Structures are given as structure tokens and as C-alpha cells.
Amino acid sequence: MRFLCIALLLTSLCYGQTNVYEISFDNAHHHEAQIAITFPELKKKTVIVRMSRSSPGRYAIHEFAKNVFNFKATNSKGQALEATRPDPYSWEIKDHDGEVNVSYTLFANRADGTYSQVDESHAHLNMPATFMFMEGEDHRPIEIDFKLRKDLNWKVASQLKKIDDARYSAPNLQYFLDSPTEVSDYQLREFTVDGQNIRFALHSDDTSEDFDNYWEKVKAIVLAQKEVFGTLPTYDFGEYTFLACYAPHVSGDGMEHRNSTILTDRESLAAGGMEGNIGTVSHEFFHSWNVERIRPADLEPFDFTAANMSGSLWFAEGFTSYYTNLILARAGVITSEDYVKSLNGTFNYAWNSPARDYFNPIEMSYQAPFVDAATSVDPVNRNNTFISYYSYGSVLGLALDLSLRQQGLNLDDYFKAVWNQFGKKEISYSIQDLEKVLAEYTGDAFAKTFFSQYIYDSQMPDYQNLLTNAGLTITQDETKPYLGIRVNATETGLRIARATSKGTSAYTAGLNEGDLITAIDGTELRTSEAYETYLNSLTVGQTIAVNYERFGRKLTTKLTVSADPTYTITMNPNPSKKPSKLRKYWLQEK
Predict the structure, then answer these.
(1) Over the stretch 378-390, which tens digit does the pLDDT of each residue have?
(2) How far apart, in whole angstroms, are the C-alpha atoms of residue 339 and residue 322?
(3) Which residues are paired to 522 by β-bridges?
(4) Most buried pick, 155, 171, 274, 287, via CB within 10 A?
(5) What is d(CA 433, CA 339) in angstroms, rounded to the nearest whole number?
(6) Is the pTM value of this prediction over 0.70?
């Protein structure tokens, strides 16, 4: 994928070895697709075809083979070939005549960034969830024929190279599997930036007028992000495509790819998606620089057969998250006040978590295979041991940007430096490379301090100083009582709704998820409102007795009321001249 021009040359030289795919949707009302693949001119006597177990942009295992059935294999004469199963994901085929044809049926009914969905409204195709491939033939070009439902007015939107309305190609397997495709009666908008075409394919019931309004916001985001890096990436085939499905039967998600992104949500633009989905547009488009081309070395090449782990997700995902809403403010999609307000949730989640006692941002990134749309049936202790690398990296991006701006520098120019050294040349980077570029931009001392304290360790930056000097305020209410529990009301008491966090009063007192609180200091509480009223009547430092039930046993514990740790970040309405100037240039206030 990284050497597309060379791959295209090889395509022209080796066209006879092109793997040919075909997909049809006659049974779409039952969420089925029929797939056929021809693998010609094979040299190996024994071959293995398989489904992927992971997908680009996702780091966890996803067993796509579970949705495959009705598998058949034949040779060039249509004669049946025996296929054995060496593992749950693969089919081993022997005694072919140099050509293997496989066919199978796929059940697909989840539209998001990881899976596929086929119904009579669309075929939403994430390629690893849809198509088999042959081991050892990754280099071969691929041609695919979409058997379009003319009765449904379907057409294809994809980053694949167009041959005609139904046929598309990819230079190799990596590019093919990284090319999600939307087949539907979608609406299309496009505009040209520096000679490259930016397209938005929208599958929804929204009106053209609503789409036009949304499209203006998207265009503003594209141009604002270009200003960060100074240039757009060079998109393969001169085109970038947003693939959006906003419909009640899809699942909310966003997923970056090399020259496109998947955007899915249950809300239409008219039903709240105009505001609710635009942040995902910002986040995923920023990835066309940061992740797709400014690429972590430990994600190269992407392994479709296993979980993919990287220690750089605090930068790849987290710094992208920092820019997500910042770009919306700069583009005029949201106000500066709305942007500052949006900092609060992420800030409190990251800095009030006990998980920093156990893992730094690099180690949080290593957790991705366990948390990135991963599933497990056994309970986990994420409440105490994990901070999302999206959020952790986002608040570190904020700290780095404001620290640089106090020196007359900024994070935008640091990103330009990383882009010019790595992304533009498509050279993957290490964490040490990121520190080295920062040292070249700011000096060794600053870079060493930032990385040693906040990346290799999990210390908290001096946000009081950073935010104040950016024309903001940050406060905590030391008089507001806090117990550290969330409750659900029942007829017999208050059920603790989630695991308590280490360091809170409730955790120290031994209370945990599932406990039923029957009384506090002798007062029976049966509603959430009664609990909130009682909580607000307490005093920080006060000791209270809590009666509760666990596993049928009646127990009592004592709990000392603490101060609410919540931080509140707001705009300073009357900043002095220097902070006012810094804030203006940071947020690009008009």
C-alpha cells in the first residue's frame, strides 16, 4: 500500500495473475451476499484461502469467518476440489490444476467501521469482513465486479480504482482490504482542492438541502485541517471519499482508511446528526495525515491474521482527538465557548482516573486489542486500570500545544515537521522519532522533559498555568461533597451501578458494584432524587454509616465524605492582554 506507484507498474506487468472477485446481492433481504473468487496461475500445489481476523483501524481480533457458509472450491474445469480446515479461519486446498475458484455465502448485518451489512437499502462492505484472500499472494492485483441491483438504483462509492460503473481494481491485497465500499442509491457532493477531488457519498433519507448544509461544514473542516499541515496528502488516484451511512439500522462508528473513511450513525442529519456526526468527520479526515501516512512503525505492515498492537496510539488516535473539536472551532462549525466546554468531559475522565498508577500513555496504547470494539464475557477492571488512549492523548495534546504556545511555538508546526520528515515521505515512525522531531523544534531540554514526564511516565502537566495563560480558567469546588458512587434506585434501596474507583471514599470503605445500599446514617433512600438531595446535605470530612447488602448478607461500613474532584474549565471573560492574544491565535478566533 505504501508503494502504490510501484504496485501499479507491477499490475500492468502481471495482469495475467490478477485475482478476480465477484459479489452479488440477490438475497439482500436476508442479509446475504454471494461471493466468487478466481485465483489463476498458481505455482504452489497446496494453497490456503482464509478470512481476516482483524481490520485496518481496529486493533482487536474479530472473527469474520463466523459469518461464512456454503463454501465451495473448484479447478479451472469446474471440477470440485476438496477443502480441509486447518483452523477456524482457513480452507486448505490441494490437487488443483493451477487455478482455484472459491465461492461462499456471507451473512452481513452490522454496518459500522468493522463489519458489513447487506439489505435492500445498501451493501455496506468492510473488505476484511467480506472477502477471503489466498495466503502468500498478497502482491497480486485484484479486480472486483459488483453485481449491482439495478432495481434499487445501486451504484458504487469506494477508494478503489474505477474501471467502469461496476468494476474496480486494487494494486494489491493490502490496498484492497483497506478499501471499504458503499453500494447504494447514495447522494454525492464533491469539490476540488489543489487539483484533488474530495467527495462525500451519503446514504440516508436526508434531503438535498440538509446535505448541502452539512457539506458546507465538511468543506470548512477539510480546508481548516489542510492549514495545520500546509498541504493535503497526495491521495491515490487524486481522490478522497467520505462514505457515510446515516440510518436507523446501522451502528455508530467512524473508521479511517488511506483515501477514504467510513462514517455511520443511527441519526439522520435532520434528526440531530448535523451536529452529532460532524465531529467524526473531523476526526477521521485528520487521520488521512496522522495514522494513514504519519504511520506508527509497529503497525507496518498491517497483519490481517492477528491483533495489531502499537505503543503510539496516544499520538495516532489521541492527538487526532485533540484536533477533532479544535478544528470544528477554527472552521466556525462550533463556537470557541462550545470548544472550551467540550474539554471538560475528557479532561476529568483522564486526570481523575486511578489508572495512571499502573500504566503510562504507551502502555495504555498497548491495551487496544482488549478494548477497541473487543468483546469479552468476563468482567474487567477498566474503571481502575484503563484510560482510553483517545482521551489520554487528547489532553496531552492540549498540554503540549499550550506549552509550545507559551514559547511562541505551536503544535501545528510540530505536526508539519513530523509530516515533512515522515508522513510526506511515507516513512513510518517510532516514539523515539517523535521525541527527536520535538527536540529539533523546541530544543533537547523541553522535549526530554515532556516525554520523560508525560509519555514514559504518567505525571500530570501544570494545567493551572497552561490554561490560565491561554485565557481560560480551571477550578475545583472543594466544598462540594462526593462519595464516588453511581446508583440505580430500586424498591429496596440504591444499587451501586458500576465499579467504584480506587481513591474514592466508596472504594476505601469497601463498597463496590452490585452492593445494595439500604440506609445512610439511618435514613432509607429509595430514589435517585432522594440520594442526590441527601448527598448535597453532607459536609466534606463528615463520617457517615452506610448499611448495605451483598450476596444476601447485611453489612455496615463507615465512609468519610470527600470533596468532588471534578475540574471545571471555562473561558475567562476578561483575560489580560497576553492570554487573550494566545487564545485568539490558538482558537483562530475571528
Answers:
(1) 999 999 999 999 9
(2) 11
(3) none
(4) 171
(5) 31
(6) yes
